[in-house]
Design goal:
Layout lengths: L1 E5 L6 E2 L3 H14 L15 H11 L8 H15 L6 E2 L3 H9 L4 E6 L4 H8 L10 E3 L10 H13 L8 E5 L2 H5 L7 E5 L6 H6 L4 E3 L6 H5 L3
Parallel strand pairs: 1-4, 1-6, 4-5, 6-7, 7-8
Antiparallel strand pairs: 2-3
């Protein structure tokens, strides 16, 4: 069995800025700070990591505030995801459909999003159904610790052992690539986010695609 783990933002979808706006609105509501996350790079980071950077930037203690921020963020995200700029990345619908016919492939998520936030972002595109489980920013602040979490969940679901070398992580940032390296898993970079194909190759991706609109070569990697 091959476990294929997708990142979300920049890889599967573009939320139309819903995540950033929702974090900004959470800080506005709780601390009266406008544009709190301006200047903070979010690519490839976990939500917990990003929130802590925002707190540090504005000199706010995480104690007693962290859960309130998460709740406010998720409440705003439910509304903000319904925007006209959101879109699914090229070829994703076709790729997920084709994977659903492959009996030896299991699809999951490996994302910095909180699990509830991940599901909120995917729901408008009707693709939650393809991802039975995964690992999320709510499991561990460090993305490099998420692959074993995903494997354990799928082992429990499938009642069988899954080796790291039978896992592939797919993402649009160097952090997606790097999180596979400590374990010997494969990685695929897709240049549909803020990083170029060359940057993803330099990060050590085993394979790189500009996008998945012409997905035949991509799917051959799993046959």
């Amino acid at each position: 069995m091959h476990l294929v783990l997708f990142d979300i933002d920049g890889t599967l979808i573009d939320s139309g800025g819903a995540g950033v706006r929702s974090l900004d609105y959470a800080f506005r509501d709780l601390f009266s700070i406008e544009d709190a996350f301006q200047g903070i790079s979010m690519a490839g980071k976990t939500d917990s990591e990003i929130i802590k950077e925002g707190l540090l930037k504005h000199g706010i203690s995480a104690n007693g505030n962290f859960e309130a921020i998460i709740n406010a963020y998720l409440n705003h995200l439910c509304k903000e995801i319904n925007n006209k700029r959101r879109h699914i990345k090229p070829g994703i619908y076709d790729v997920l459909r084709e994977f659903s016919f492959m009996k030896k492939v299991k699809l999951g998520l490996l994302t910095g999003n909180l699990e509830q936030g991940a599901r909120i972002k995917l729901e408008p595109f009707n693709i939650n159904r393809y991802f039975q489980a995964g690992a999320f920013g709510s499991d561990d602040e460090d993305r490099d610790n998420l692959l074993p979490v995903a494997i354990k969940r799928f082992e429990e679901l499938c009642k069988r052992r899954i080796k790291f070398y039978n896992c592939t992580v797919i993402g649009d940032t160097p952090r997606d690539i790097h999180c596979s390296k400590p374990y010997g898993a494969k990685s695929i970079g897709v240049a549909t986010g803020s990083y170029s194909a060359d940057e993803l190759k330099q990060a050590g991706a085993d394979y790189v695609f500009e996008n998945l609109s012409d997905y035949s070569d991509f799917l051959l990697l799993f046959v």
